[in-house]
Amino acid sequence: MRPETRKPPHPANVPGPFYVELDHCTLCTMCEFAAPDLFALVDEVLGAWYVSKQPASKAEFGRMKEAMRDCEVDCIRVKNCPPDWAARLRDAGMGGLIDSVEGEG
Ligand code: SF4
């Protein structure tokens, strides 16, 4: 978790709280292993994975959380995170990947 290196979201991410940062993905493919239904590759040339589907269930959030945990450069982040999911991320020591929480100032 290195806030000073935080980058904006890649434009390919679908709208919603979870995103992969622009120009940060190293193509390690850990997100593909953890959540193949939630991530896709922009293209082989540009070389970046992005969030192709926002988690919509507890099970999908669990896979997103695994991808965030396994990403080797911490480039999968969340903004306006639903409070219950933010609590689970914080409990897992992943609070540094949260930009903001829904309803928190
Ligand atoms: S886990 Fe992170 S660095 Fe690895 S491919 Fe996915 S977004 Fe890129």
Task: Explain what you see.
The protein has 105 residues and is an alpha+beta fold. The chain has a single domain, classed as Alpha-Beta Plaits (2-Layer Sandwich). Helix content is 26%, strand content 11%. It has three helices and four strands, in the order E-H-E-E-H-E-H. The strands form two sheets. It has a two-stranded antiparallel ribbon with strand order 1-4. Strands 2-3 form a two-stranded antiparallel sheet. A hairpin with a 7-residue loop joins strand 2 and strand 3. It is globular and about 40 Å long. 32% of the residues are buried. The model has no long low-confidence stretch (mean pLDDT 93).
Any chance you could write out the topology, listing elements then pairs?
Blueprint: E1 18-20, H1 30-34, E2 39-41, E3 49-51, H2 58-70, E4 76-78, H3 83-91
Antiparallel strand pairs: 1-4, 2-3
Iron/sulfur cluster (SF4) binds at residues 20, 25-31, 49, 71-73, 75-76.
Distance between the termini: 21 Å
Quick one: CATH class?
Alpha Beta
How large a portion of the residues is in β-strands, by DSSP E?
Answer: 5-15%
For the record, the count of structural domains works out to 1
Q: Name every ligand kind in the structure.
A: iron/sulfur cluster
Query: Which structural class do you get from the secondary structure elements?
Result: alpha+beta
Q: What number is the mean pLDDT?
A: 93
Summarize the structure.
This protein is of the alpha+beta class and 105 residues long. It has three helices and four strands, in the order βαββαβα. Residues 20, 25-31, 49, 71-73, 75-76 line the site of iron/sulfur cluster (SF4).
